[in-house]
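ok here's the first one, seq then struct tokens
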Amino acid sequence: MSTFLDERKKIDPQPIGSSLSITELIDSTFLAYNAGRIREACALFDMRYAQEEVLVGMSITGALTPAGMGITCFAPLMQAGLVDWIVSTGANLYHDLHFSLAKSLYQGSPYYDDTALKREGVVRIYDIVFDYSVLLKTDEFVRTVCAGEEFNRTMGTAELHWLLGKYAAEREKQLGLSCKSLLSTAYEYDIPVYSSSPGDSSIGMNIAALTLQGKGPCIDVSQDVNETAAFVYAAKKQQGKSAVCIIGGGSPKNFILQTEPHIQEVLGLEEAGHDYFIQITDARPDTGGLSGATPSEAVSWGKIDPAGLPDTVVVYADTTIVLPLLAAYVLANNRSRSHKRLYQKRRECVEEMKLSLND
């Protein structure tokens, strides 16, 4: 018999029973194809990402928070200390605020007559529907808080979102809400949340409206680039590991991965790349887009450490299916870590990186 086969785990299927746990279900029935990649991603997160010395960055694209995943998946992982910093589309953070404000979104259908919905004042995100007033009330909340004195200065998106999370947490408390949104959880645990395209969302549009009145924050994206790179550099300099968990693709994927080229190529500091890589995507690699680019391609850019390629998994599937399975698997195994509270350390990390430029 081939020695190659001797090293493989045998497919030994067992019937599904009524008492199967989520861990047993994935380990014993997700045996091949994209199910096999889901199992591998769960195992990699469980075994590597959940270690104390690992810095875990997560990028988020796709309309996930309108589907409730800020509360169902992201917040529990953050509360367990399993996410240290985040890069998200602004849209996900904006729609996350609906839940902090107790605004109602509803399950619907992708087959509605959108002309009729427009007449009724109903907005549709595929099979999610909600009243147009939800947008107006959320816009009002964003403009009101961002017009406050503590916002009236230059800041990066981490500070912007931390302050928004502060007010979101206050509103949740006032309304007696038991569930925490992504932004209020990030505020509670000092998890920095960045947006790679801060103008590309309703949050950005409302801030732009305030600037016409001479109010609100001025966003400095250079702070974001340097802070995120400094987190990775500090972790690696302290003999730790850096892991990325990419939910979707798009601009946040590039932003979370470009930390390494910024360290190596632009700043000229010695580094090898991120150590662990998980991506859940429906994008194909053969179209040349970044969303579908593989971990091995990222090696050529210095984004991924070549030695870390065995610890990379790409799951080609719908993120709304895979993410709850991944979160449930890891949390079912009682994985948790102390919170790194990087938001409070971001300036310190940048200063340390600056000192290394002079060494």
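and now the second one, same deal
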Amino acid sequence: MQKEHLPIYQIQDFEAQARKEQYFYFSTFSAHLQEHLFTREPHKHDFYIILLVTQGSGIHTIDFREYDLQPGMVFFLSPGQVHSWRLSDDADGFVVFFTQEFYTREYPDKSLFNFPFFHAISDSPVLRLSDGEDVSLLPVLHLLRQEFGQTKPLRHVMLSRLLDVLLIELTRLYRPAEGASETVGKDRALLQNLYRLLDAHYKEHKPVAFYADNLHVTPKHLNEICKGALGRTTKELLQHRVLLEAQRLLVHADLTSSQIAAELGYFDNTYFFRFFKKQVGCTPEQFRAANR
């Protein structure tokens, strides 16, 4: 296992609450940027992030994709994603950090995977609010800000309740990626479990049958669910996860292309290089040169 070549910030680095099960952080975006200048360079987090932009402009880069940062945009980041930004001096908004432990302490039967914007493998990390859509978000954010700055009894309970309301309101506003459709019930649960399996096993298990077997469905049925709900086949979801990690390692790790191929479970370098070039349009070394 290679060492990490990017900073991975923990929520304690942002003066979150001291006890692990309570890890939560809230700030205005402008204050956050002034206090934590190190966040402008590429880095990872081990927690979840919601950022609502209220003013300013710039570029927010998430896993090699650049997004124009403008008022009325909401960004969602899951643990492990690489991001950085270039911002105007007047950039402002609200930023919320929280861990899975913080959320599940009050909601032990719920998962953050229940919310579509935290499906980093398949869904867009950006929500563009239409005029007036922030009316349901701003009151909750102001209450979170107020509660976070106080030391009243049951503070962590109130923060958890308000966070859940914010997540529900965002889910109502969030629009699936192009080519995808709404999923409910068993199909949603199946996809949530698929995301977990892909993230845990994409390096050592490439056949779709492995994931279908673990989900107790046929590969054909799993593929139909993925295609109908996400507009991608199961194989395409797996390939996307492998390619994303390959790109991260090429740009941020001091490893050769052959070492990266082996790290990702490809012991035939030629096959990995052909696969990468077919999917990305350039060789691994060309991608590294263009993005460093």
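notes on #2: The two ends are 22 Å apart (CA to CA). The mean pLDDT is 86.
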